[in-house]
């Protein structure tokens, strides 16, 4: 049977995303730093004001070697910095402070808490809330486009190749092909 002109093809179309390389994916790179169980737990504690190794270990029950490894990784990635301190008659130790790169993760912590509250909170609700210092209003995450519109439906967002995108087999970023 012949297909009429203008009729939609019955052949399945591949998603356009399959045309693009993911070797330089920034989500993948970020998850290489943040993507294990304990890393965001450590960051949550530092955001909540815990700065000392022993305080974090006691509060979270993270094994000593795991905590030490996560803190070292967060320092080497530039999310935390070490600040020396000394208690009377004790050896020098270090506190862990957020850098700007670490502080930039705060909206992700808020969003992760919102998602966890929606799907995993006990009946009483989340044990953690974020409040605006000046008015005590609850803080939540929201998506906005570069034109200032609030995005309320995830389906209103379209993934598109960014300036660093590369077609499969092409080593130059999309932005290089757009320059005059």
List the helices and strands and how they pair.
Blueprint lengths: L25 H9 L4 H9 L5 H8 L3 H13 L3 E7 L5 E7 L1 H4 L2 H15 L22 E2 L5 E2 L22 H5 L2
Antiparallel strand pairs: 1-2, 3-4
Describe this structure as you would to a colleague.
The structure is a single chain. With 180 residues, the chain is an alpha+beta fold. Among the domains are: 23-101, Arc Repressor Mutant, subunit A (Orthogonal Bundle), CATH 1.10.10; 105-120 and 127-155, no CATH class. 35% of the residues lie in helices and 10% in strands. It has helices spanning 26-34, 39-47, 53-60, 64-76, 100-103, 106-120, 174-178, and strands at 80-86, 92-98, 143-144, 150-151. The strands form 2 sheets. A two-stranded antiparallel ribbon has the order 1-2. Strand 3 (143-144) and strand 4 form a beta hairpin. The longest helix has 15 residues, at 106-120. The mean pLDDT is 89.
């Amino acid at each position: 049977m012949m297909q009429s002109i203008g009729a939609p093809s019955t052949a399945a179309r591949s998603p356009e995303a399959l045309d693009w390389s993911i070797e330089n994916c920034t989500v993948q790179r970020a998850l290489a730093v943040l993507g294990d169980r304990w890393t965001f737990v450590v960051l949550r504690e530092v955001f909540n004001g815990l700065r000392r190794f022993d305080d974090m270990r006691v509060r979270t029950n993270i094994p000593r070697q795991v905590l030490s490894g996560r803190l070292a990784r967060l320092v080497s990635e530039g999310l935390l910095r070490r600040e020396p301190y000394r208690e009377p008659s004790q050896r020098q130790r270090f506190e862990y402070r957020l850098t700007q790169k670490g502080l930039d993760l705060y909206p992700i912590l808020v969003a992760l808490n919102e998602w966890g509250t929606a799907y995993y909170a006990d009946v009483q609700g989340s044990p953690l809330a974020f409040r605006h210092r000046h008015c005590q209003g609850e803080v939540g995450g929201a998506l906005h486009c570069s034109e200032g519109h609030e995005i309320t439906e995830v389906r209103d967002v379209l993934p598109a190749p960014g300036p660093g995108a590369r077609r499969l087999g092409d080593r130059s970023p999309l932005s290089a092909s757009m320059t005059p």
